[in-house]
Amino acid sequence: MSLCPSKCFRIAALAAASIVLGTQIAIAQEPSIGSQWLNTPASRVEALAVLQTLNANLLSNASATLTLDRWCAGHKLAPEGSKILAQRVRGQAKPADDHIRELLTVGPDEPIAYRRVRLVCGDRVLSEADNWYVPARLTAEMNQALNTSDIAFGRAVLALNFTRTNLSAKLLWSPLSEGWDMDGLIASGRGSPTLPPFLLEHRAVLKLPDGTPFSTLVESYTSKVLDFPVPRSLAQ
Fold first, then answer.
1. What residue ranges do the domains of the chain occupy?
2. Which of 109, 127, 132, 149 is the least crowded, having the fewest Cβ atoms under 10 Å away?
3. pLDDT tens readout for residues 45-71
4. Residue (of 114, 86, 118, 119) closest to 100 by Cα position
5. 33 contacts 223 by C-beta, under 8 angstroms
6. CA separation, residue 219 to residues 42, 82, 170, 210, 216 (Å)
7. What's the rounded Cα separation, in Å, for the pair 228 and 221?
8. How far, in Å, are 96, 115, 124 from residue 90 at the CA level?
9. How confident is the model at residue 235 (pLDDT cuts 50, 70, 90)?
């Protein structure tokens, strides 16, 4: 006899899916990456709870870099003491359009810098980000670091004591099928569920303490954020 009827799984899944109010769900990618998670109702509910925990942590903290530092350490995704590094992606410049300039409250002639990076925890790419920022609103030292090193943006501008205004948050994949709350969870299957390359997408504006925006970004979080051994209770 099961120790937890399907109703328990429904309640747990509903709680996980409701952690972040207002998060949009856009299941738009084809699954393509294997995972260590089990293809069971309990494991799928656990995966959703973990994903929404990360989602909530990112949305409630100003710096995605520091949030990923903690996620990387807490889930042992890299050797102890590792910090998030930014791998620059060059040759893919995206000039700021009118919408970007409006978000940053700058005129058509104000220089806007662009930086595309992959945020890496050890050998795992946890996110890819497009970042447009106003160099004139940073210090000379910050601009120098951003132009000449692989420092993550959030770490480079930490001294600004900035805040974050979230514009949107999309869940790009869910381990639970559409309509699970009415039809019930799918039965256990063989192997592991497959994951798409990206699981979450956030859009945000970073602001100085006086409310002046200095950066706007699009962050896409990869399936590697779930690339750790499944909880022991699920593996047994």
1. 6-235
2. 109
3. 888 899 999 999 999 999 999 999 999
4. 114
5. yes
6. 29, 21, 10, 24, 10
7. 15
8. 16, 8, 19
9. low
Residue for token digits 């929404």?
52
Q: Residues 39-76, buried b or exposed e (16+ Cβ, 10 A)?
A: bbbbbbbbbbbbbbebbebbbeebbbbbbbbebbbebe
Half-sphere exposure at residue 109, Cβ-oriented, CA atoms within 13 angstroms: 0
Comparing C-alpha atoms, which of 209, 188, 193 is closest to residue 42? 188
Q: Does domain 6-235 have CATH number 3.40.1410.10?
A: yes
124: exposed, middle or buried (Cβ count in 10 Å: 0-12, 13-18, 19+): middle
Q: Residues 6 or more apart from 37 whose CB is under 8 A from it?
A: 43, 44, 46, 47, 175, 192, 193, 226, 230
**Strands of the sheet with 113-121, listed across from one edge:** 24-25, 163-171, 198-207, 213-222, 124-133, 113-121, 85-88
Q: Which two tokens stand for residue 185?
A: 């969870």
Helix (H) or strand (E) segment spanning residue 181: helix 180-183
Confidence class for position 44, pLDDT limits 50, 70, 90: confident
Residue 89 contacts residue 118 (beta carbons within 8 Å): yes
Q: CA torsion 168→172→175→181, rounded to 10°?
A: 60
Residue 36 pLDDT class (50, 70, 90 cuts): confident
Rg of the Cα trace of the chain?
A: 19
Q: Each residue of 143-178: b (16+ CB within 10 Å) or e? A: bebbeeeebbbbbbbeebebebeeeebbbbbbbbee
Neighbours of 222 (CB within 10 A): 21
